[in-house]
């Protein structure tokens, strides 16, 4: 009886807390909090770039790495050609993720179906996301993105693309803004919250009454098969997280 009462009290506590959290934070932030990683610690050798980006470090070259990478790039080139018309991607279930509408921005067109499958097995012919750049002539397919679970090991990432060539990244240390926060604190150069916000520690987030999200999504890696500069085919450390939407530099 006591055990049953304790369980009922636990359920009631959730009934009380959930509406309170719903009032304090947007649904998408609560979703990231519930399903995101609980810590940005990882067995993958990595470094922080800025306040909210975690990048894998280059691994030692192994026999066959170059050949594997070339095969992946060749497949990515075929994918980009197939989805040159953004309407083809839309017809196949790819949808734009948070486009700003600004010229020059890079937009991830993501397939929920293929992104889910990537958690179990990578299909290079059907990447989870197609990368498009907004140009005066319309959306231009420029690359693909493969993803892996947030708790992946170096061996798991290396099995998808060689760590000696590709660089993986994760979005980390995100402080969700309470609904009551002014718009300027959520977006823009003075933002405290969000993916470009100045808050990047749990202590500071708690003090600001935000919602701490240590890892927003899983690991990701970009491939730009038609890049003029061979060093930018695997974007890696060339990515500049604070670049504005008008930059030619790939953004995440």
UniProtKB/TrEMBL annotation:
Give the top-rank taxon of the lineage listed in the UniProt record for this protein. Answer: Bacteria
User: Is the keyword Signal in the record?
Assistant: yes
Question: Signal sequence span per UniProt?
Answer: 1-22
Keywords in UniProt for this one? Answer: Signal
Q: What is this protein called?
A: DUF1264 domain-containing protein
Q: Which organism is it from?
A: Dyella flava
